[in-house]
C-alpha cells in the first residue's frame, strides 16, 4: 500500500479516537505535538518508511557564545514583523539567504518596513548574508531553551504526566507503540513547553504586529504563544504536496495551525496543507524572480540531463538511468542526490558500468544549479517543479518502478511523462520546454496581492 493510502488509514484511526480533544495546556491539542513522531513510527513499523529531511546545512561563519538574546534592541520598535527563517540557508554567489523569506523581503514592501529575521542557526561572524543587518542569530535562544528544557524535563511528568499517559494508553495498541514512544512523548512535550514559555516572554516584550514562518511543524511552541498573545501567524509554503503527507494530513485547527498559508503557485490547494481554502493565499514565488536576475539561459548544458534522486528511490533511479543511457547514448546524466542520501558500495559499482553518468555536488541549493541544465529528470520532487519555473525542460520518469503522480490534474500536461524510448526521444528533441503553461505551479510573485493580504488580514 502506497504512503498516501497508508496515511489515509492512519488519519481514520486518529479520527476514531477523537484525539484532538485532549489538550496539554489550555488551547493546545496534545496530539499535534506528538502526531508527526507517531505517524513516522507507525509507517516505519509497517513499510520501513524513509523520512526525508532537508535540514542539513553548512555552518556559516564562526560561532560565538551569546548569553543574551538579540531581541533586546528591538523592544522599543513598534509594528515589528517577525520572520522566522527556514532551517537551511542557500548560498548564491557567496551570499547566504533563506529562499522562502529573503526574496519576499527583496521583492515586496516589507523591505521598507520594520522587520526582523530570526535565524535558527547558531553561527555568526564574517559571512555575507542577505539582510544580515536585520538578522538575529540563535545563540541566546539556544542557551535559554537548554535551561528551560532541563527544567521542563523534570516537571512535565509531574504536571502533565496524567494527560500524556492518557493519550498514550488510548492509542498504544492502535499504533503498536512501546514505552520508548511514551518517553519520546514526554521529551517532545518538554521541548514544546520550553519553547512556548520562551516565546510567551519575548512576544509580550516585543509586541510584534505579525509573525511569518516556514514549516509549522518546527514552530508549535511559537505558534501557541502567538495565539495566546493574539498575534496573527502566516506560514510560507516550502515544498510540493499533492496527496496525504506525514506533516499535513488532517483538518485545520485554529488552536495550533497558522492563521494563513502563503503558496507560491495557484495550483496548490489548502486541503493538502491542513488549511482551509479561505486561509490559503497565493502570493507567488519571489525566489524565482530573484534567481532570474542571476543567470543567463545561454549557459545551459545541451547534452546533459540532471537527474533528481531521493533515498527511497535510489536503486530505481539507477535502473532508470541505465535504460535511458541505452535509449539515447549521446546524452550524459548528472545525478543530484538528496542531502540525506548516500550511495552504498553496490550502488556505486552499478553506476560505474554506465559511461555517461556522474554524481554531482549537491551542497548548493538546487535553484542555483538548475539554470545550467536544459533537461531535468526525476520521479516527483519539489526540484522538478522548481525546474519548470526556471525554464528547464522537465521529464517525470514512469519506468523501472518509478511512479510519478501523472494522474493528478495538470501534471501530464506540464511535464514530459517518459515511459518509452519514443517518449524520451521526444523529450530531448522537442523544441518546446513544456506542453502547457507552467505558471500555476510557481506563479510570479505579486507584491500587490501580498501587500493587500498583509494590510487586510494581518
Termini Cα gap: 42 Å
| Number of distinct helices | 14
Find the count of extended strands (DSSP E, 2+ residues). Answer: 17
Q: Cα-atom Rg, whole angstroms?
A: 23 Å
Helix content: 25-40%
The biggest beta sheet is recorded as: 7 strands, parallel
Q: Strand arrangement, largest sheet?
A: 7-6-3-8-9-10-11
Summing up helix and strand content along with how strands pair, one would put the structural category as alpha/beta
Whole-number mean pLDDT: 87
General shape: globular
Low-confidence stretches: 54-58, 60-68
Strand content: 5-15%
The number of domains is 2
Brief descriptors of the model:
alpha/beta, 458 residues, 15% strand, 7-stranded parallel sheet, 17 strands, 6-stranded parallel sheet, Rossmann fold, 14 helices
Description:
With 458 residues, the protein is α/β, with parallel strands linked by helices. The chain has two domains: 1-285 and 443-458, no CATH class; 295-429, Rossmann fold (3-Layer(aba) Sandwich), CATH 3.40.50. Helix content is 38%, strand content 15%. It has helices at 3-17, 30-47, 102-107, 139-171, 179-206, 220-228, 286-292, 314-327, 345-352, 366-369, 382-389, 411-414, 421-429, 447-457; strands at residues 23-25, 28-29, 81-84, 90-92, 95-97, 115-118, 135-136, 210-214, 233-236, 260-263, 280-282, 301-308, 332-336, 357-359, 373-378, 393-397, 416-418. The strands form four sheets. Strands 7-6-3-8-9-10-11 form a seven-stranded parallel beta sheet. The two termini are 42 Å apart. Mean pLDDT is 87; it is low at 54-58 and 60-68.
Amino acid at each position: 500500500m502506497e504512503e498516501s493510502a497508508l496515511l489515509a488509514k492512519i488519519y481514520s484511526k486518529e479520527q476514531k479516537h477523537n484525539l484532538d480533544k485532549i489538550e496539554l495546556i489550555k488551547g493546545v491539542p496534545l496530539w499535534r505535538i506528538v502526531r508527526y513522531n507517531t505517524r513516522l513510527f507507525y509507517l516505519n513499523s509497517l513499510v520501513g518508511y524513509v523520512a526525508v529531511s532537508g535540514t542539513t546545512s553548512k555552518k556559516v561563519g564562526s560561532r560565538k557564545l551569546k548569553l543574551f538574546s538579540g531581541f533586546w534592541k528591538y523592544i522599543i520598535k513598534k509594528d515589528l514583523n517577525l520572520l522566522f527563517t527556514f532551517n537551511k540557508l542557500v548560498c548564491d554567489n557567496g551570499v547566504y539567504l533563506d529562499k522562502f523569506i529573503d526574496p519576499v523581503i527583496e521583492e515586496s514592501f516589507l523591505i521598507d518596513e520594520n522587520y526582523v529575521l530570526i535565524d535558527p542557526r547558531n553561527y555568526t561572524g564574517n559571512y555575507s548574508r542577505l539582510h544580515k543587518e536585520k538578522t538575529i542569530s540563535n545563540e541566546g535562544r539556544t542557551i535559554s531553551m537548554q535551561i528551560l528544557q532541563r527544567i521542563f524535563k523534570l516537571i512535565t511528568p509531574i504536571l502533565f504526566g496524567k494527560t500524556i499517559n492518557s493519550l498514550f494508553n488510548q492509542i498504544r495498541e492502535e499504533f503498536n507503540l512501546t514505552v520508548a514512544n511514551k518517553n519520546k512523548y514526554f521529551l517532545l512535550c518538554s521541548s514544546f513547553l520550553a519553547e512556548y514559555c520562551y516565546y510567551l516572554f519575548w512576544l509580550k516584550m516585543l509586541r510584534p504586529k505579525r509573525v511569518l514562518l516556514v514549516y509549522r511543524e518546527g514552530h508549535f511552541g511559537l505558534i501557541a504563544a502567538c495565539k495566546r498573545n493574539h498575534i496573527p501567524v502566516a506560514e510560507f509554503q516550502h515544498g510540493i504536496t499533492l496527496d496525504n503527507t506525514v506533516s499535513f494530513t488532517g483538518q485545520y485547527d485554529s488552536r495550533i495551525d497558522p492563521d494563513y498559508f502563503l503558496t507560491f503557485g495557484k495550483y496548490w490547494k489548502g486541503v493538502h496543507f491542513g488549511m482551509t481554502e479561505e486561509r490559503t493565499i497565493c502570493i507567488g514565488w519571489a525566489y524565482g524572480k530573484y534567481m532570474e536576475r542571476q543567470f543567463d539561459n545561454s549557459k545551459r548544458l545541451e547534452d546533459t540531463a540532471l537527474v533528481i534522486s531521493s533515498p527511497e528511490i535510489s536503486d530505481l533511479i539507477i535502473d532508470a538511468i541505465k535504460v535511458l543511457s541505452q535509449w539515447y547514448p549521446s546524452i550524459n546524466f548528472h545525478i543530484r542526490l538528496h542531502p540525506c542520501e548516500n550511495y552504498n558500495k553496490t550502488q556505486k559499482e552499478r553506476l560505474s558500468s554506465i559511461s555517461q553518468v556522474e554524481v554531482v555536488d549537491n551542497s548548493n541549493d538546487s535553484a542555483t544549479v538548475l539554470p545550467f541544465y536544459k533537461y531535468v529528470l526525476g520521479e516527483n520532487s519539489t526540484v522538478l517543479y522548481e525546474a519548470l519555473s526556471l525554464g528547464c525542460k522537465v521529464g517525470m520518469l514512469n519506468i523501472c518502478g518509478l511512479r510519478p503522480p501523472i494522474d493528478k490534474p495538470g501534471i501530464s500536461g506540464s511535464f514530459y511523462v517518459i515511459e518509452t524510448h519514443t517518449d524520451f526521444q521526444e523529450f530531448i528533441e522537442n523544441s518546446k520546454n513544456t506542453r502547457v503553461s507552467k505558471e500555476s505551479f510557481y506563479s510570479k510573485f505579486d507584491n500587490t496581492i501580498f501587500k493587500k493580504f498583509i494590510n487586510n488580514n494581518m
